Structure to design on (634 residues):
């Protein structure tokens, strides 16, 4: 989860020590910060520092960039009120850091008090309050239905015993195991992690015997802890992780996977028929959500509903259950919801209702049927069958395409990348030294077409509308970018390319098709991969008449070739591997539209956004934000 200005964080114990350092660091990234602390003087001081650091981000905003709340974290009512005030002020909660701590200065074995002892307070502050804060933060984040990160501050004392302070050591050890046990919350988009630093030079750290600190290499810098916290917040692969920070070894995740495998036993529920699930972090659901087409319409939102359905078990012997991580959005989604891909008329198509929507997705295999041998549970796969707009998919295992990782870049390589790669080779018969024109070139498939044409040694001309799209195409190496918002495509082509284009990769249709046909050179090949300008509107996909088409192509020995990806399924894996190799070698860039669409319920918004003409690059829906992986790309 990338930390961006405008997000908000609540930090307990934020008035001093590590909490203070984290509050300031968060404000330097533009976050709104609530400082929860028992000391009014300390909390007020930190709030002033946060206001100063974040002024560049929020200026004269009516919402204060820092909020101090005096609170005893052991008081459940006051703690809940602090969270409520934060949400009321900032409209939500993105990050919660539980940093409040307490050191018992007396030997617990000498304590003769009853119920008012300092060791009880140490347990309540260090462990009970952390549990309570995590509980409240989790409830808020789940109600928001968007990703959230919780960081609990543990200690090296929670990893190995501190004989002179068993209460502190025991309470911090409880924080470690409590946090590690919350890894399954990742399924809801909430990641809870714990940091266990060795000694930092704070008021609490100064109370530790300096001989011990020196033996461990000296005090850590505050920036070491801040960097560790930010790593756990931003690395979405981390859930239930324990990060040990020391002067001697740096940042180490504890325990190692090898150590964990020695003792960790995954509990198993009673087996359900023929289902196999060997990947413990993916639970086979009883119910899941998916987008279903209930009525035929080119208006995607009107045609579809978000259905909650029961998983059909047992799995068929040759099938696999895939947890969808990312799904790709395509202009032709509206053709699918109108029934265009089932038959020639609405009456025949209506017989298929209801049916699942979505053409492409990537995910992780959760379970396989008894006869499946080539795909294992836990494998990353891509699939290009109807129904990708879902949290889970049951699909014949033979349709799964193995991929290195279930990343959004992979989604872009599916319908969009494969269409460009296969059509230019088969329909366009592309060689080198040619002039290749690509329309709508800054879209999901156009970006691949221009790069593949350049890699083949061709001169590439690309059309787009808008400065940001023109900038993208220039960065991809396009020789001539035509921004139709500032110049006429027809005039540019006529003046600068009088002999015409050898290959035209055309996806707009309508007037653009006419223009491209006139710009096609002798022996030229015009590849029609779509007609997005004709997909929307009350009439939907309205056929066009092209008078004189035969005469035009006959006079110059031209070819107009239609291309539909589904009819080239035997080439998918070969060309997908080719795209992977180009991408991993740095020769092929993958542009993703920066607008985020999270959860399967956001699919209609994503489809409408694509058709608005504002998108740049591939539009992708992150179906499960908890499983998205942003740091380790292909």
């Amino acid at each position: 989860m990338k930390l961006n200005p405008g997000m908000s964080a609540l930090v307990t114990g934020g008035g001093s020590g590590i909490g203070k350092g984290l509050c300031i660091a968060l404000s330097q990234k533009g976050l709104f910060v609530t400082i929860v602390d028992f000391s009014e003087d300390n909390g007020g001081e930190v709030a002033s520092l946060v206001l100063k650091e974040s002024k560049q981000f929020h200026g004269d905003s009516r919402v204060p960039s820092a909020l101090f709340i005096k609170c005893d974290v052991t008081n459940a009512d006051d703690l809940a009120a602090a969270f409520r005030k934060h949400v009321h002020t900032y409209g939500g909660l993105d990050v919660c850091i539980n940093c409040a701590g307490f050191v018992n200065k007396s030997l617990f074995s000498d304590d003769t008090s009853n119920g008012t002892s300092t060791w009880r307070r140490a347990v309540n502050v260090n462990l009970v309050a952390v549990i309570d804060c995590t509980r409240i933060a989790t409830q808020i984040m789940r109600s928001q239905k968007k990703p959230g990160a919780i960081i609990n501050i543990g200690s090296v004392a929670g990893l190995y015993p501190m004989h002179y302070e068993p209460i502190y050591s025991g309470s911090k050890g409880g924080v470690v195991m409590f946090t590690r046990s919350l890894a399954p919350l990742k399924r809801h988009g909430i990641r809870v992690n714990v940091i266990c630093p060795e000694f930092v030079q704070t008021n609490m750290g100064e109370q530790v015997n300096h001989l011990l600190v020196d033996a461990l290499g000296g005090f850590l810098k505050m920036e070491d802890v801040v960097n560790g916290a930010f790593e756990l917040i931003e690395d979405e692969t981390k859930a239930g992780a324990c990060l040990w920070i020391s002067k001697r070894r740096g940042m180490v995740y504890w325990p190692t996977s090898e150590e964990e495998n020695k003792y960790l036993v995954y509990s198993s529920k009673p087996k359900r028929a023929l289902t196999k699930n060997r990947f413990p972090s993916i639970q086979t659901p009883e119910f899941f959500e998916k987008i279903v087409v209930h009525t035929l319409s080119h208006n995607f939102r009107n045609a579809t509903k978000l259905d909650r359905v029961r998983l059909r078990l047992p799995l068929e012997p040759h099938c696999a259950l895939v947890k969808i991580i990312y799904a790709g959005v395509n202009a032709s989604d509206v053709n699918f919801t109108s029934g265009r891909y089932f038959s020639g008329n609405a009456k025949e198509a209506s017989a298929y209702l209801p049916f699942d929507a979505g053409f492409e997705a990537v995910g992780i295999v959760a379970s396989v049927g008894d006869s499946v041998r080539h795909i294992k549970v836990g494998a990353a796969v891509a699939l290009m069958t109807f129904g990708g707009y879902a949290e889970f998919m049951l699909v014949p295992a033979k349709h799964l395409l193995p991929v290195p990782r279930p990343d959004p870049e992979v989604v872009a390589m599916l319908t969009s990348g494969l269409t460009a790669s296969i059509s230019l080779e088969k329909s366009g018969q592309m060689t080198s030294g040619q002039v290749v024109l690509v329309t709508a070139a800054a879209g999901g498939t156009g970006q691949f077409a221009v790069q593949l044409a350049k890699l083949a040694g061709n001169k590439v001309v690309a059309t787009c509308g808008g400065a940001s799209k023109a900038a993208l195409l220039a960065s991809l190496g396009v020789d001539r970018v035509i921004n139709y918002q500032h110049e006429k495509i027809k005039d540019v082509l006529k003046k600068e390319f009088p002999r015409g284009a050898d290959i035209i990769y055309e996806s707009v249709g309508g007037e653009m098709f006419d223009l491209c046909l006139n710009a096609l050179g002798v022996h030229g090949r015009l590849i029609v991969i779509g007609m997005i300008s004709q997909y929307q509107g009350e009439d939907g996909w309205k056929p066009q008449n092209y008078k004189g088409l035969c005469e035009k192509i006959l006079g110059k020995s031209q070819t107009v070739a239609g291309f539909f990806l589904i009819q080239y399924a035997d080439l998918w894996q070969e060309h997908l591997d080719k795209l992977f190799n180009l991408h991993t070698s740095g020769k092929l860039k993958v542009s993703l539209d920066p607008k985020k669409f999270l959860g399967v319920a956001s699919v209609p918004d994503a489809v409408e956004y694509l058709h608005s003409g504002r998108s740049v690059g591939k539009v992708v829906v992150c179906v499960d934000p908890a499983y998205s992986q942003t740091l380790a790309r292909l």
Summary: The first strand starts at residue 8 and ends at 12. The chain has 20 helices and 23 strands. The first helix runs from residue 17 to 27.
